[in-house]
Amino acid sequence: MASPALLLGVGMRTRAILRWPLLALFAIAASPAFAAPAYATSGDCDGFPAVALATAPGLCMGVVAEGLGHARGVAAIDDDVFVIDMAAWESHKGRLLKLSNGGRHAPEVVLRDLWQPNAVVRGPGRTLYVGITGQVLQVDPYAADPARGARVVVDGLPTTGRHPVPSLAVGADGALFVNVGSATDNCHPAGGRMPDPKAACPETQESPPRGSVLRFAAREATWHAGELAPYARGLRNSMAMAPLPDGRLAVAVNARDGINHADPSLSDAALPHDLLIVLRQGGDYGWPYCYDQRVASPEYPGFDCATRLAPDLLLPAHAAPLGMLLYRGDRLPGLAGKLVIGYHGYRATGHRLVTVALGKDGRPTGAPTELVSEWEQREGSHPQGSPVGLVEMADGSVLVAEDHSGALLRLSRRK
Prior knowledge:
Layout: H1 11-19, E1 41-45, E2 48-51, E3 54-55, E4 59-65, E5 71-77, E6 80-85, E7 94-99, E8 108-114, E9 119-122, E10 128-132, E11 135-139, H2 146-149, E12 151-155, E13 168-170, E14 176-180, E15 212-216, E16 223-224, E17 232-233, E18 240-243, E19 249-253, H3 259-262, E20 274-278, E21 283-284, E22 290-291, E23 295-296, E24 313-315, E25 321-326, E26 339-343, E27 352-358, E28 364-373, E29 387-392, E30 398-402, E31 407-413
Parallel strand pairs: 12-16, 17-21
Antiparallel strand pairs: 1-2, 3-28, 4-31, 5-6, 6-7, 7-8, 9-10, 10-11, 11-12, 13-14, 14-15, 15-17, 18-19, 19-20, 20-24, 22-23, 25-26, 26-27, 27-28, 29-30, 30-31
């Protein structure tokens, strides 16, 4: 793999390297300090301290680790767990942590001083893809110096606006999917003004377009984010992505806020719904012109939403899905072949895990079913849940990274 140190040049490539602080790192440093525990525990959950959360029958939640900073993405290679610590929004102090033996060992720092890292997924062999602001990196976490051997896989991702951090997924064929979130809530210009209803939303004309999902085949040369047409577009912020066995990609989309500001007759509490979609390559799902089942947005009242694709399923408004996986094992009762989705939202619809069944056509069917709930803040028991990254381990358990409290939790079979 080419080292980022060799990718020097002019223009955008030079700027990308200058803004990437990875080159000065030392890999595998001392373990991060632990914060005070946020979760009270009592009893055992498959070998980990159990927490007082409501789970589906036959399941329990245990604490694997706490004090992991602003924990976002999570991935696994064999029995090693890798967690992204964003540190804070707008921070250049993010880290990639490694917790060996299924999380039972104290965390080690693999990479540090990352710019708003958000996502980590397993790449080819025993490598990882790490999504930071502006770029996707490929890292060998087992190298003597992971920082020196890391390379930039995708460059030129947006770094501005409301949603600058990428989420990642790897398809069945090894291709890398990258979410490009919107820069604004619903294409509103600065100063709270309304967009021009007769003009195309400027951020959808960028390269790459905001509100899109990109797909990159594996190759040695660095991809530029605007090099290919989007895999799909019209998706405000597809933070939760799950590859399906047939090669398609399921996404859960975070819809807009403040629809009542554009039309006071509409309820911000109830509208719009977040969306669950199995993407059609080349498809346009309507953001910012449409919401829900192809309803014209109040900013674009004359738009013909019949020309856009409809979502497969409406999720609760403001649930804020940030993580999703397709459960492939059989250890956890009732989960086989279903999507597991983490609702990160702070409103009443958020802070829980749900499942969604897939029909024979591989598309979502039926209403979401609660998997982990009663995750509101309870003094002396647990914080309000804020699940982000999800990963299924080889033993069939599911690890959940929880950012506001910096915890790593484990969903397992109750014994």
